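ok so for the tutorial part 2 we go from a plain amino acid sequence to predicted structure tokens. step 1 is just haveing the sequence, like this:
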Amino acid sequence: MSLLKSITTRKLTSNDKDITATAVELLNRTQGNGLFAPDYLQKRFGDENHLIIAAFDNKNLIGIGVAELINNFDYYLPFDPNLNQELSKKIVGSFSTLSTLESYQGKGVGQLLSQKRIEWLTSHRCEVALGVSWISGHAHTSNRTFEKAGFRAVKTLSDFY
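step 2 — the prediction. this is what the tokens look like for a chain of 161 residues:
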């Protein structure tokens, strides 16, 4: 049986506060210690412009992804200083963050969560989706997940993070 057949996904809500500490710990462990505040996910509950999607194997959290609708592009300006003009009249989404439990990396969980985020952005009539990936040199980097989700690299910056 394929691993993905045993994986379930669902949107997290304010009723899932017991999961958020584990999810934020996963984000910090896999993306950079201290990068995400303890209330990072809780601040997004109830905001219709955010999706927090989680993957579970049985009841165990194995992945977390966040997407959002945005109208401020300042974070992305180092990649293209013309974004404000290019995107000002479009519905724009952001792949805010994604982490998969280390023992599940490279097994399609990130792709599954990315697919769910794209479906959500599409349901909100999103015309453009933005995301930032870094090339870490490790076996499981987000650039491959972005590519498999249909993103294309626009610009590489050596000193963004």
